[in-house]
Amino acid sequence: MNSHERNGGRSFQPSALSFRPSALRSQERGWTERRERSGDGYSLLELVFVLGLVTTVLGVATPNVLAGLDDAKTVGAVRYVSAELQRVRMDAVTRGVNTAMRFSQADGSYICAVYADGNGDGVTSRDIQRGVDTKIQGDQRLPDQFSGVDFGTLPGLPPVDASSSAPGQDPIKFGSSNMAAFTPVGTSSSGSLYILGPHGAQYVIRVLGETGRTRILKFNARTRRWEPL
Distances in Å between the alpha carbon of 52 and those of 41, 55, 62, 64, 220? Predict the structure, then answer.
């Protein structure tokens, strides 16, 4: 019996799912075209637009970021100096002798050092030169610990309050001795230290004589007023 007879006399017809090279090639061309269309990427106009948008955003954001970093660094320096002043005050109380932080100008910056009274008349420049009042803490420079931050003032700063005068170009306001002095009972000489950041952030540390405590204020350039931190 031949195959025609085994199938009941019916002729064998290829299935519609049979392999057809022409159909497969057509389908492959469709896939390729879709891949090519999806892989076209951005046009030159779109790229120019995106680059322009990114440049604009960076141009607006960068100054604000730099100002924020400057302010954070300057605040850190201000708090550090304030804490050092309070440490000197506590040294005076615990030692039972007058102590002072002295500010000396050198190479366009200021050097800070701490001295203890050696003869009972307070810390004086003369006794420091004679070696009577001894140094109890070595020289420090603020920019060495906070890059770009130093004692300084912006041009035309107004007075902190009605009872004080404008600082001018002198950031150390502790009389002619340039010393913040503290007594064994915790009082101090009154004065102000102006600290300037690398991009213009301006602060002042005020030392209150009756208590020896410190107060920090920030200069608001927009309102031109000093504001408590």
Answer: 18, 5, 15, 19, 33
Pair 181, 99: CB distance under 8 Å: yes
For the stretch 77-114, pLDDT in tens is 999 999 999 999 999 999 999 999 999 999 889 999 99
Q: Is-contact 179 98, C-beta < 8 A?
A: no
Q: CA angle at residue 109 from 118 to 105, to 5 degrees?
A: 40
Q: Which two tokens stand for residue 84?
A: 């050092």
* CA pseudo-torsion sign 213, 184, 176, 84: negative
How far lies 16's CA from each of 3, 13, 20, 28, 200, in Å? 21, 9, 9, 18, 81
pLDDT tens digits for range 131-171:
999 999 999 999 999 999 999 999 999 999 988 899 999 99
Question: Given its phi and psi angles, is residue 67 left (phi above 0), alpha (psi -120 to 50 degrees) or beta?
Answer: alpha
Contact between residue 216 and residue 222 where contact means Cβ atoms under 8 Å apart = no
Alpha helices in 96-174 (DSSP H): 125-130, 142-145
pLDDT exceeds 60 at position 25: no
Report the alpha-carbon distance of residue 213 to residue 115 in Å, rounded: 19
- Rounded CA-CA distance 171/99 in Å is 21
Is this model's pTM higher than 0.85 or not? no
